[in-house]
Design goal:
With about 170 residues, this protein is of the alpha+beta class. It has one domain: Gcn5-related N-acetyltransferase (GNAT) (Aminopeptidase). It has seven helices and seven strands. A seven-stranded mixed sheet has the order 1-2-3-4-5-7-6, with helices on both faces.
Length: about 170
């Protein structure tokens, strides 16, 4: 079952993010890695900044989370993680569909360049990598991340984003 998160899910979201983010250890630049990957204070700040989490539950257990953040003219998928013990079972795909299908806005996703599995996952679900110049612009416009993370990240866009840009180009 997929449902919006509530205040009681905070600890589960925190645990899942940090459990699943271990996959980045040793892949992303060492100066970008820290433990925990996301602190409780950082998670609180993300929620306060408008990241709304959805939970994939198996009974009463939260086993996957994905956030969406409304940024005005676009929506961002943020912090998409599934417990390590439950990965590769379609949970991420179900969460992604649940969040993007009802969206009327273009959807963007940022991830680490080194996270080839994440990039492939999003491409499999219809997202495409944007070029370096556009990536830099999008990350600086819609995300609040350090310059080092901008340098070592990618952005993927859905078809709605492409359609929006095509309309802008014609105008």
């Amino acid at each position: 079952m997929i449902r919006p998160s509530n205040a009681q899910d905070f600890d589960a979201i925190f645990e899942i993010v940090n459990d699943a983010a271990i996959a980045y250890k040793g892949l992303i630049p060492a100066d970008c890695w820290h433990e925990p990957y996301m602190t409780r204070a950082e998670l609180c700040a993300q929620i306060a900044d408008g990241v709304h989490f959805w939970c994939y539950c198996d009974g009463n257990d939260v086993i996957g989370v994905m956030g969406m953040q409304d940024k005005g003219d676009v929506a961002l998928i943020r912090h998409a993680y599934v417990r390590t013990s439950r990965r590769n079972g379609g949970i991420g795909a179900q969460l992604l569909r649940e969040l993007i299908e009802p969206s009327t806005k273009p959807v963007l996703i940022g991830t680490w360049k080194a996270a080839s599995w994440a990039i492939a996952f999003y491409q499999k679900h219809g997202f495409r990598l944007v070029d370096e110049t556009l990536k830099n612009h999008l990350l600086k416009t819609y995300w609040t991340i350090p310059e080092r993370q901008v340098e070592t990240s990618v952005v993927l866009a859905d078809q709605r984003y492409d359609a929006l840009n095509a309309r802008r180009d014609r105008a």
